[in-house]
Amino acid sequence: MEPYLGLVLVVSAVFLLFFFYMVPVRLWLAATFAGVHIGIFNLIGMRIRRVPPHAIVNPLINAHKAGIHLTPDMLEAHFLAGGNVYAVVNALVSADKANIPLTFQRGAAIDLAGRNVVEAVHTSVNPRVIDCPTQTGGTAMLDAVAKDGIRLLVKARVTVRSNLDRLVGGATEETIIARVGQGIVSAIGSSNTYKDVLENPDRISKKVLDSGLDSQTAFEIVSIDIADVSVAGMGNVANVGALLETERAEADKKLRQAEAEGRRATAVALEQEMIARTQEMRAKVIEAEAQVPLAMAEAFRAGNLGVMDYYQMRNIQADTQMRSSIADSTGGAPPAGGTTLPPASPSR
Predict the structure, then answer these.
(1) Does the global pTM surpass 0.70?
(2) Is a pLDDT exceeding 50 seen at residue 256?
(3) For residues 313 and 115, what is the distance between their CA atoms, to the nearest angstrom?
């Protein structure tokens, strides 16, 4: 009889252990005294479906105490889908206390999309400030150029808050930073002078803010503030205007020098062209003069020119050369272009 009694005690102990494992009595009592109605069989079903009962009951108690109506099936379905039940419930409680409309379905969708739903609610309540450009982006300032050619370095701070309606599928903060940087560069580029930007930097931020940069993003831009704006390379200069005018005058001088050098080169080229044309004309004259002896020889052969006519022409030429030699103090070189006649040949 005693061996059977020991077996019964062992079986009873195993049964009790199995019962208390399958039925979390402490959680059931906590839920019951907290006003959350959940059945024993629901807890046993969670065990069978490999859902930790505490992962469902504790968030359910928190939501019930916060006045949010949720069912165990909703939380269990979200848990089985791979979601964070605690995060969704905490986000719902925070949104409810801050009067932010957020349903369980949207919160669960945000959580399953890989976003931190609690941080999204906190950012919606307490807007976050983003540097543009970011400190980790490699560039500390945005580089923009006004219409007068002056480079400006700009740093902005963007205040954003989460838009829970567009958090799923909306662009991230990197898109916000890129759009704000693009808007600032465009606004400065449309300014007539850099002085307009330095005088009214808030006009740049207002123009960028009115561009609707937060469309199709997960955030809503609250404000864009220009934190710093300066002329590139002028960080340690007291009188920026004087230095810029000096550099502009130096640039104008170099431009005028380049234009004068261009005109001089054009004049030199034209002069060389005229010299070449002169040489060409002289060559044509010499070529024409070379035809004179040939023409005279032809005249001799045709009988149109006699020997006496030839000697008379030679005498006139010699007389002319003598007069030129007397008048020329340098030795009397024959006049340019003069024709040297061949010596007279005996008459046939």
Answers:
(1) no
(2) yes
(3) 116
